[in-house]
């Protein structure tokens, strides 16, 4: 009989989706900052980059400290920062206050993502849980792309939507552990990261992988409005359809699981994404723009889910997952500004060629890590049980010697037992 599937950790899945919502809404956020505030396109892109940089900094600061502070405490702190930051930025039109609120909200999103990624990586099926998280955020972002254009102008609507989502997640934190009882905090911080070469190579590659994705994502709205000549409502429909295709891609990745390993989805998927970016950046009509965006968004969450699973496999405590995610956030943070600068100097078509070439180059080390990790897992599965070494586990509590009088002799009691014994 087949064993039942492990139930999904829905509190962590919900927090994962909440943390990723801000990057998913980046095009409409940057576009409305540009249209609703006295900012140039480059300045609006820089504000989006500042938001995502705050998210990345939270991940780097908390990568090895989730167990120490407790998942519930950190998740509530992150949600509070997100509500205050995004909510404050939505309610003001003063540019410095908007930027400060965006950075604070980004730090909150990064904190929530760190908690979710750490918990998911420590679970029994991190790929399935992360796939469910991407499924949820794709559905939520798609609904918002269909709704926001009909709610009126102004820069604050996307930011308010992220703040309200964070507020709605507050009751979920009650189902998280206050502290992890498994590993003492002092030992948890001293423990070395396993597989440092693969982890560092993956962490070094992810900023460039994410930068290429989000450089296009940050200016996709402008490509649709200016180069393809679409209205904001039409662009919103394209983005919603693209995120709907992302839902199908995530469902496909969940159904596929580990049948193809991780190297083929990561390497082959990245090559296909490079082609989609070049197509989308060169689009001058609705069919071309929609094809590039939909195909790209269908592939992106698939590859990302396998990358998250790859990072989780490097450390069961989730530290590499958080570090790789934070490194990805660095590239995500630089994406909007990079896209704005490249499009201003080389045009959208030239920007697409540069980003596609960079993705093709970065696919090589990412695939190498996936191949090496896959070989290690296969080799570990082939080790006989008798050959597995015995590991001594140190115990912090010293043993207390027992008193001799606490034990009696084995066997039936003698007839001449002491008075009062039975």
TrEMBL record:
Keyword Transmembrane: yes
Keywords carried by this UniProt record: Membrane, Transmembrane, Transmembrane helix
Keyword ATP-binding among UniProt keywords: no
UniProt superkingdom: Bacteria
SUPFAM superfamilies: MFS general substrate transporter (SSF103473)
TM annotation in the entry: 7-26, 46-66, 73-91, 97-120, 132-151, 157-178, 199-217, 237-256, 263-282, 294-314, 321-342, 348-371
Stated name of the protein: Transmembrane efflux protein
Species assigned in the record: Streptomyces glaucescens
């Amino acid at each position: 009989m087949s064993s039942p599937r492990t139930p999904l950790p829905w509190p962590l899945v919900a927090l994962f989706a909440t943390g990723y919502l801000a990057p998913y809404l980046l095009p409409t956020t940057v576009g409305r900052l540009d249209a609703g505030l006295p900012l140039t396109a480059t300045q609006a892109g820089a504000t989006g980059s500042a938001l995502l940089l705050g998210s990345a900094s939270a991940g780097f600061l908390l990568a090895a400290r989730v167990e120490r502070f407790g998942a519930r405490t950190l998740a509530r702190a992150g949600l509070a920062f997100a509500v205050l930051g995004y909510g404050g930025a939505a309610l003001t039109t003063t540019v410095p206050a908007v930027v400060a609120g965006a950075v604070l909200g980004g730090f909150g999103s990064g904190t929530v993502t760190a908690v979710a990624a750490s918990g998911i990586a420590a679970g029994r099926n991190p790929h399935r849980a992360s796939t469910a998280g991407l499924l949820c955020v794709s559905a939520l972002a798609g609904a918002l792309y269909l709704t926001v254009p009909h709610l009126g102008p102004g820069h604050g609507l996307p930011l308010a939507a992220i703040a309200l989502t964070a507020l709605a997640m507050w009751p979920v934190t009650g189902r998280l552990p206050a502290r992890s009882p498994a590993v003492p905090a002092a030992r948890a911080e001293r423990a070395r990261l396993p597989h440092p070469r693969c982890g560092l190579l993956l962490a070094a590659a992810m900023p460039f992988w994410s930068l290429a994705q989000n450089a296009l994502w940050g200016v996709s709205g402008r490509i649709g409005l200016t180069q393809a000549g679409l209205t904001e409502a039409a662009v919103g429909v394209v983005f919603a359809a693209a995120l709907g295709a992302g839902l199908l891609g995530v469902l496909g990745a969940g159904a596929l699981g580990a049948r193809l390993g991780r190297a083929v989805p990561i390497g082959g998927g990245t090559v296909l994404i490079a082609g989609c970016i070049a197509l989308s950046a060169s689009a001058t009509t609705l069919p071309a723009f929609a094809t590039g965006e939909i195909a790209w968004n269908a592939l992106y969450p698939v590859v990302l889910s396998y990358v998250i699973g790859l990072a989780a496999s490097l450390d069961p405590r989730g530290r590499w997952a958080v570090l790789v995610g934070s490194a990805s956030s660095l590239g995500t943070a630089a994406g909007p500004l990079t896209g704005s600068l490249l499009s201003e100097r080389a045009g959208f078509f030239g920007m697409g060629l540069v980003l596609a070439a960079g993705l093709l180059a970065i696919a090589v080390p990412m695939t190498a890590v996936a191949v090496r990790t896959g070989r290690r897992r296969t080799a570990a599965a082939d080790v006989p049980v008798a050959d597995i070494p015995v590991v001594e586990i140190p115990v912090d509590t010293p043993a207390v010697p027992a008193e001799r009088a606490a034990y009696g002799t084995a066997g039936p009691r003698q007839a001449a037992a002491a008075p009062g014994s039975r």
